[in-house]
Amino acid sequence: MTDVSERSGVLRRIFASESAAAPGDSHEQVVLCHDRDSGLKAVIAIHSTALGPALGGTRFHPYASEEDAVQDALNLARGMSYKNALAGLDLGGGKAVIIGDPTTVKTEALLRAYGRFVQSLGGRYVTACDVGTYVADMDVIARECDYVTGRSPENGGAGDSSVLTAFGVFQGMLASAQHQWGAPSLAGRRVGVAGIGKVGHYLVDHLVEEGARVVVTDVREEAVDRVRAAHHGVEIEVVADADALIRADLDVYAPCALGGALNELTVPALTATVVCGAANNQLAHLGVEKDLADRGILYAPDYVVNAGGVIQVADEIDGFVFERAKAKAAKIFDTTLEIFARAQADGVPPAVAADRLAERRMADVGRLRSILLPGGRRP
Ligand SMILES: NC(=O)c1ccc[n+]([C@@H]2O[C@H](COP(=O)([O-])OP(=O)(O)OC[C@H]3O[C@@H](n4cnc5c(N)ncnc54)[C@H](O)[C@@H]3O)[C@@H](O)[C@H]2O)c1
C-alpha cells in the first residue's frame, strides 16, 4: 500500500488516522458525484456519524480546482461535526460542495441529479442550504431525496435559518457579558456589528431591544438603509468599513460578514473586550485564539454561538416546531458559559475548550451505540 507520505494532500487528510493527525482530523467517507449531462460535479464529505446522520449544507461555488473543492468539503464537514456536537444535536457532521458558478450553471436537472446522489447515501448525510444554495433549491433537491432540510415552509421546511442564528449569537453575547462583566446584560454597552445581512440585521433588532448602543458597517448601502428604516428614531451609528469599526470605541465586536475577520492586523487594533458574532471561521489561522486571550479579549467560539441556524434546520427532521427549535437555541447561553468556565479552569483559550468539549461528546455519546438495542432503534 502507498505510504501515507506519498499520497496527495486530499487523500492524506481523508485517511489522517494513519498520520500524526490531530483528533478529529480524519473523515469517514467522501463521495465524488458526477453527472455529465447536467454538468453536476459534487463532493459529499462525511466527517463523523458518531452522534447520528451527518447534517451540513451544500455550498455551490466556482472552485479554482477540484482539489480545492474537496479540501473545502473536508474542512466544512469537520466543522459541522463540532458545531452539531456542541449544539446538543443527535447529528454528526458532513457537508457537500457543488463545483460551478451557481448564477450560471444551476439548473433543475443538476440539482435533482445531486438529490439522487444524496438519496443514494440512505440518510448517512442530510443536506441543507449554504453559500450559493437557497430554500428554493432545497425544495428542488427534495423532489429526488428524503434527506433535505432548509426547505420552504410550504414544503414542510423551517424557512430562513438566519432568525435563530441571530437569536443564538445574541444568547452567546449575553453569556459573554455575564462572564466578562458579571451580568447577562448588554444594556448601555457599545456593540459593533460588521455585516448587517440576513443574520446581522436580526442581531441588531435584539441589541436595540436590549438597550445596547449599536454601531454598524456594511459594504452594501441598502443593508444600512434597511436597518435604519427598521429602527426609526433609534440612534444607529454607521462607520465606513470593518477597519473603522474595529478601531471604534466598542465593548463587543460582532463579525457577521465573511470568515477570517480576526487576524494579526485586526486583533491588536480591537478596542472591544468581547468578540461574539455569526461569521463562520472568524479566526484567520491557528494561534489567533491565543493572541486574543493574551490581550484579555474574550472570544466566544463562532461555531458555538452561530449554531442557531443548524438547530433550526435540524428540527425539520422531526417536523418543524419553531418554539422547540428556539428553546434549543436558547441553550447556547449555557454552552457558551460552560466553555468560558472550562477554558479558565484548564488555562486554555475558549476555542480550545470548545473543541475539547465537542470531541468529548462525540466520544462519550458516540460510544453508546456499541450497546445494542432490540428493534433497530438508533442502531
Ligand atoms: N444565515 C445563517 O443562518 C448562518 C448560520 C451560521 C453562520 N452564518 C455565517 O454568518 C455570516 C453572515 O451570514 P448571512 O447569512 O447574514 O450572510 P449575508 O450575505 O446575508 O450577510 C453578510 C453581510 O455582510 C456584508 N459584507 C460583506 N463583506 C463585508 C465587509 N468586508 N465589510 C462589511 N460588510 C460586509 C454583506 O454586504 C452582507 O450584507 C456568514 O459568515 C455565514 O457563513 C450564517
From TrEMBL:
Localization (cell): Cytoplasm
PROSITE patterns: GLFV_DEHYDROGENASE
Entry EC number(s): 1.4.1.23
Keyword field: Branched-chain amino acid catabolism, NAD, Oxidoreductase
Signal sequence interval, chain numbering: none
Reaction(s) the record says it catalyses: L-valine + NAD(+) + H2O = 3-methyl-2-oxobutanoate + NH4(+) + NADH + H(+)
Assembly and binders: Homodimer.
Keyword NAD: yes
Organism: Streptacidiphilus alkalitolerans
SUPFAM superfamilies linked to this entry: Aminoacid dehydrogenase-like, N-terminal domain, NAD(P)-binding Rossmann-fold domains
Main localization (coarse): cytoplasm
Pathway: Amino-acid degradation; L-valine degradation
Name listed for the protein in its UniProt record: Valine dehydrogenase
Recorded family membership: Belongs to the Glu/Leu/Phe/Val dehydrogenases family.
Pfam families found in the cross-reference section: ELFV_dehydrog, ELFV_dehydrog_N
UniProt cross-references to PANTHER family, sorted A to Z: LEUCINE DEHYDROGENASE, VALINE DEHYDROGENASE
Catalytic EC class: oxidoreductase
Family annotation (InterPro entries): Aminoacid_DH-like_N_sf (IPR046346), Glu/Leu/Phe/Val/Trp_DH (IPR006095), Glu/Leu/Phe/Val/Trp_DH_C (IPR006096), Glu/Leu/Phe/Val/Trp_DH_dimer (IPR006097), Glu/Leu/Phe/Val_DH_AS (IPR033524), Glu/Phe/Leu/Val/Trp_DH_bac/arc (IPR016211), NAD(P)-bd_dom_sf (IPR036291)
Gene3D superfamilies membership: Leucine Dehydrogenase, chain A, domain 1, NAD(P)-binding Rossmann-like Domain
Superkingdom field: Bacteria
Stretches assigned to the Glutamate/phenylalanine/leucine/valine/L-tryptophan dehydrogenase C-terminal domain: 159-370
Keyword Oxidoreductase carried by entry: yes
